[in-house]
């Protein structure tokens, strides 16, 4: 009886070869939205040695399998199957921990942010897209959350997006479970200490990670003190989580 080996494409053969030669474990970023993640991704994507990191990012987003090979490195974005496969230099996505099975040797990290600032940044982004008629894919669903005011937004935004930092690490919004999973990451840091966090990652991984700030939305918002207080009250579990994580 003849047995045939599975056919491997030229790209897959190249990926296998590069992965065997790779000096670092696969690096994975739990990308929580509006926590400086795009700037972090760009720092790692700079290892593609491209002249335009933004253009490389766009190519990655537009490629069918969201995987690119450059400078003998494999980069993956958003593709759950390839992320779980582990054959990459660097990968990232918004997929929660409880929906992923990463390789045991993966170097994992995340960046956290003041919860209220993160939600306001999300609102600001959507409002910017709306006012400038930008057809970003997220607007197909999230545009409807805006309503006519910030109060409408807080009523409409789903809980898993409102408390995305907590949900990323606990499906049931359990603070203890989320803390345990974040501490189990190879590294985590806070957006207010972004430069130090990137410097630490650079040292740990022996990589050059140039930091550039991306995605700034020039729009004025009028969020009053009662609205801010209401927001912080709704985000109390996330504030509790971050307080615990800031302790040794």
Characterise the protein shown here.
- The chain is α/β, with parallel strands linked by helices.
- It has a single domain, classed as P-loop containing nucleotide triphosphate hydrolases (Rossmann fold, 3-Layer(aba) Sandwich).
- 47% of the residues lie in helices and 11% in strands.
- The protein has helices at 10-21, 37-45, 53-62, 80-85, 115-131, 139-142, 150-156, 159-162, 164-169, 175-183, 194-205, 225-234, 236-245, and strands spanning 27-30, 67-70, 73-77, 90-93, 107-112, 187-190.
- Helix 4 links the parallel strand 3 and strand 4 (90-93).
- It is globular.
Summarize this, please?
The protein is built from 13 helices and six strands. By secondary structure, it is an alpha/beta fold. It has one domain: 3-Layer(aba) Sandwich (Rossmann fold), CATH 3.40.50.300.
Structural class: alpha/beta
**Uncertain stretches:** 1-5
Can you say what the CATH homologous superfamily is?
Answer: P-loop containing nucleotide triphosphate hydrolases
Radius of gyration: 19 Å
How are strands sequenced across the largest beta sheet?
Answer: 2-3-4-1-5-6
Oligomer: single chain
Mean pLDDT: 94
Overall, the morphology is globular
As for the CATH topology, it is Rossmann fold
Given this structure, which CATH class is correct? Answer: Alpha Beta
What is the first-to-last residue Cα distance? 61 Å
The CATH architecture classification is: 3-Layer(aba) Sandwich
The largest β sheet comes out as: 6 strands, mixed
Number of helices: 13
**Share of residues in strands:** 5-15%
Which bin fits the share of residues in helices? 40-55%
